[in-house]
Each structure stands twice: as C-alpha cells, then as structure tokens.
C-alpha cells in the first residue's frame, strides 16, 4: 500500500492539469469560504510527485489563506466600529472579489502554459 503523495512522477501534461486545478478549483469551494481546500488537497497529494504542482498548489493555498485573513480583519473592523465599517468594507469586498477572480484566472493561465505565478498581497504562511 503506498502512502499519500507518493507514486511515479507526473508527466508534463499531468503537471499542468493539476496545477490548473489547484487555482481554478478554489472557485468551487470559495462560495463556502473554503477556497483553501482544493489547493490543500492537491498539495498534500502531489507535493512529492511534482515540484511544479507543489509550487502552484502552495501559492494558491497561501493566497486563499490570505483572503480568509483579510476577510476576518474586515469583519472585525465592522464589529469594532459597530457597523460603520460596512461603509468601507462593502466596496473593498466588491473590489477585492473582482481582483481575486482576475488573479486566479491569471494564475490558471500561467499554470496552463507551464509558467510560474506569484499572487500579489499574499501572506506566505505555508512553505
């Protein structure tokens, strides 16, 4: 029985496919604030089989964790200001959501073409 994350190396086309899923898959779970689950699963499964997939999944994972942190800070701001922070937070959430979608698409395109991608404003907690 093999342990998770071990197996034969991935082919270049498999590497690109799993790197793409690490980025675009976040959109599926993001509706439940669980966008980090897809890149986390891919990172855990493929980190020892492909350095390319490991880097893309890790970058996507750190970006999703950063988004959760920024959301928690926004919620805290609303609570601390007794709701007045909503005037600032709502426009930031709209702009941030559009920006997040754009960079996720850019990361997906980079993965599809075999290139590296670094998300902006990302706290790199997982290494």
From TrEMBL:
Topology of this chain in the membrane: Multi-pass membrane protein
Membrane-spanning ranges: 20-46, 67-88, 94-114
Localization: Membrane
Keywords for the protein's UniProt record, in alphabetical order: Membrane, Transmembrane, Transmembrane helix
Protein name (Swiss-Prot/TrEMBL): DUF4870 domain-containing protein
Native organism: Kribbella alba
